[in-house]
Amino acid sequence: MEPPPAPGPERLFDSHRFPTDGFLLLALLLYAPVGLCLLILRLFIGVHVFLVSCALPDSVLRRFIVRVMCSVLGLFVRQSDPRLRDVNVRVYIANHVTHFDHNVINLLTSCNTPALNGAPGFICWSRGFMELGVTGSRAELVDSLKAYSSHRGNPPLLLFPEEAATNGRAGLLRFSSWPFSIMDMVQPVALQVQRPLITVSVADSSWITELLWTFFVPFTVYQVRWMPSVPRRAEELSEDFALRVQELLAMELGVVSTRLTAADKTEHMKRLRHTSLLPFAPASTLAARPRMPSGLTGAGSFAPEDMRITAMAQRVKEVLPHVPLEVIKTDLAQTNCVDTTIANLLEGRVPFFPESKEANTDLPAPSTSQASAASGIQGSIAVPSSKPATKQFAKSPVERHLSLQERKRALYDYARRRFAEKHGAARAGGSP
């Protein structure tokens, strides 16, 4: 059976905080006065919670008291079958949903999360992060964490290999391999977050903004599920170990394991800001909106959204000239992302019949340099077959990932050649 297609970045990150449903929006407006009163009251209570957590030593009693006080702040933490938590495991691996995931899990068990981003100091310490004093490479960080974990008196590490928060509903970001090179055994922790009226987190929102909205809403429920410990197999690489744990955690959460990274999230947010979609509506809503074919719309009703899809399709067409333009537009209407559409076409997820040179009349005739570059890319990248994707889909996730990386590398080489040829031709034409 063919696996479901990986969701695009527009489904993994929420860019819109308020609901689009009219009934929920009306309920939010009616609740707003109560929410403002709760926000002001919880700000004072939150200061007391912070002082109590700083004054009491780390113990079961302290976690119980702080957990009860957090329920007044609207933070409810539930855990399923805490007996599965392995006391011998030194590294916990969890998915990332909010800015406060490490604080929530710390209410259940003693653990430390190293500060990877942000300047060290009081803010970093007050948020519950552990400062290691390592400002060098990732290898130095791993060595420091190995030395930390070698002392049995230190609490276990809680790491988030996604390195960026998602909405927790569609998929997991690709796990980084460095957390899996610290110890040979890890314990996955599945985390799910729910709240009424508004979304759990917005992709580009700061932790202060998210804290204020947490105090505003009636409650936020964190569900923590401990999974059995996962040991490293004999001679298993850290990348393979990370991929295996990612698949297990995705199955537990009922989501898809993707190959998107934190860098893809950054690019997605830049794209939303550039297209002015961020202040108005989530990208998932725009991607799901039905679009009329270009042949059925009049010249006066040609929407800006269709113009944007056409411009994106031209960019894909430049990279993959053998793919029909209508196939590209159809997939772009679903993904709303040039990179995702290119990956879908290269991976064979979108079947099509290669377009002949005679039939390609939608684009202007390529120049000699463009024709040579196109022939180079067609020689380095195999034309996807029109057969069903089930016959092309590799059995091993590692093989699928390597294949995608090879094709992406070929695309990058082609783009560099086109850039060099274009600017070289421009300089030659402008020289005396």
Q: What is the number of helical segments per DSSP (H or I, 4+ residues)?
A: 15
Shape: globular
Task: Give the SSE order as H and E letters.
Answer: HHHEEHEHEHEEEHEEHEHHHHHHH
Main β-sheet, in a few words? 6 strands, mixed
Which radius of gyration do the C-alpha atoms yield?
25 Å
Assess the beta-strand content as a share of residues. Answer: 5-15%
Oligomer: single chain
Biased composition (Low complexity): 364-382
Transmembrane segments: 23-52
Family: Belongs to the AUP1 family.
Region (Disordered): 356-400
Please sum up the structure shown.
The chain is α/β, with parallel strands linked by helices and 432 residues long. The chain is built from 15 helices and 10 strands.
How would you describe this structure to a colleague?
- With 432 residues, this protein is an alpha/beta fold.
- The chain is 47% helix and 9% strand.
- It has 15 helices and 10 strands.
- It has helices at 9-12, 22-55, 60-72, 101-106, 122-126, 138-150, 207-216, 238-253, 262-274, 283-288, 304-319, 325-335, 338-347, 368-380, 397-430, and strands at residues 75-80, 91-94, 113-114, 129-130, 157-159, 171-172, 185-194, 220-226, 230-231, 256-257.
- β3 (113-114), α5 and β4 form a beta-alpha-beta unit.
- α2 runs antiparallel to α3 (60-72).
- The chain starts with 8 loop residues before the first helix and ends with a helix.
- Mean pLDDT is 77; it is low at 277-303 and 358-391.
